[in-house]
Batch of 3 targets.
Target 1
Amino acid sequence: MNKYNPARVALGRLPTPIERLETLSKKYKKNIWIKRDDLSETALSGNKVRKLEYIVAEALENKADVLVTWGAVQSNHCRATAIAAARLGMKSHLVLRGSEPNEADGNLLIDKLVNSRISYQTPDEYGKMDKTYELLQTQYEKEGKKTFRIPVGGSNETGLWGYINCARELVSDFKNIGFNPEAIVCATGSGGTQGGLILGADLHQIDGQIFGINVCDNKRYFENKIGEDINLWLEKYSPATSKATQLQTNIIEGYVGEGYGKASAEIFETIREVAELEGILLDPVYTGKAFHGMISEIENGCLARFQDILFIHTGGIFGIFPHKENMV
């Protein structure tokens, strides 16, 4: 494969640390480590930072003034995009699915603090992204500004570079600590983190299997979405390579619950357990569900056969606060 690296803007504090979960490893009789991408920055934290480093660089190359993206009202990606734009002297416009809440909390509060323009849309309106973007593009052109479109979650062929780069970090992590995980687990919400890890593991010769625990949609959706993103990456960055049919997408289903952004009592219990035993904060939308899924599969599922396991902490701390009534 051609290992060409595209332009990148340094937004995160990378590399992030990797730590052993001492108490939980003893409790579940496994060797469990965690990659702390929740520490990739302070406000601009989490997995979205890695993707945006490459996507925003592309926007700057296109001489864009306004970053336009989509997400839920409490979207980590939208918050990260809004902060990145503010840091770089750009503007952001967030198209959020749902109505404006009575109280701005969590990610939404930060969106407003950095003065992002926000449009709230019904699910039907939200699905018409091409039309919305055309209208916003025209609106900003009248103001003398150029827009740049970023997909949901920053998950496209450019965004995949974020976790290709993370896989390169992991090679160094594993060498330094003498750890060789058989399984690497992450939350999958738009596919870019898992897709980047799959490509990165192939490029950097990581032996462990990559597992994504989907927090929305289903296994077939993510197999298709991740496969499409990987093939677009190959076309754009490594055109001499055949399509990545040999790269396996492992999705662990069964932990979406009532839907995206909706967490059950057992998810909140897992969040409390990890906080109490390890002093690490998970969120109810992504990492809480994924960690709960990982522990469940360790006890009685597809991860039971593995002894050495790595969890990718993709951030989301601000998502805790809108669910505070379930946390205590």
Target 2
Amino acid sequence: MKTFIAELEEHKAIMERLADCSGAIEATGALLIETLKRGGKILLCGNGGSAADCQHIAAELVVQYQKNRKALAAIALTTDSSILTAHSNDFGFETVYSRQIEAIASEKDCLIAISTSGRSKNILKAAEAAKLKGMAVIGLTGCEGGELSGQVSHPVIVPSDVTARIQEAHILIGHWWCGAIEEAVSAGNYS
């Protein structure tokens, strides 16, 4: 069994390597600010722990992250159990997110598609549907990006093959985005 200190050291090493991704992280943060400025929504999708991250990030944006400010338009496509179960039962799980994008998204919106491996079929289909709508698509992934990194306009690839470390980095990135958005709102750089 790995000791906690060994786990912590592995975590710290990945977090330090995230510096290599800072350009992509900051550019996607600016994209999210622009999306909200033009009246668009931030949509998020993922599976398992990534689904929980979608809900977490959407909640930080709609409610608040660190500052009391107006609500921001963010929707986790992972939360409506009736849609998720009806669609999966009637059509299959591969299109459970792309169907929602078809229904509620517009070209002003931005999709954050999260897949630690970059190979989740329903996430790939969601990115494809978003591109067909003319949306910007951020792919938040690890494992060298998988197929997702080549399918999205803005890949952010955590430099790890360990799912737990990738997910830890994803929530750090999501928190940084929320903070950057709140700073833009507080500075009046947002309408």
Target 3
Amino acid sequence: MIAFTARCQNLAIGAQYAHGVRCFDLRLKSIGGEPHVVHNAFDYGTLYDIQGSLQWLDYKGDTVVRVVHDVRSRKDCTAESRKLFAQWCKALEESYPNITFWFGRNLYNWEVDYDFAYKPSCEERYASVCSPRILDDWCPLLYARFNNKKIRERGTDMDILLMDFVEV
């Protein structure tokens, strides 16, 4: 996989917020027993590295964060990794009480690894779930450029609309 295929936003959290974003996606995986922020094979550092962003969102008090256990194989989706993920989710809820967290599933078998109370309806409108074309899946920015305007105009009847590259 090439790095640009894992990127799904160009803007920092504050700039996304300024664009009206109120739901953020946080993907965690255990690396050496530590919580790392990842997207598939790409490691963006530890959960501790983004504490400033989480504190800022907590201060805002009107955001939702989807927490995903980004494990994609039996080798990575172990009882130990699931237990650690659940501990991290509980710690997130306790540390940031003004953020509404949700999801708590792993990507390997889609099971719930942590049961958050909030269970919104969600529409996902981005290349990896909406596009059968290989090019769009390899270049999600291309998908966003061709589709985001229509997605925004159509909106959603669900609680949350997830999309990549909100500025496009």
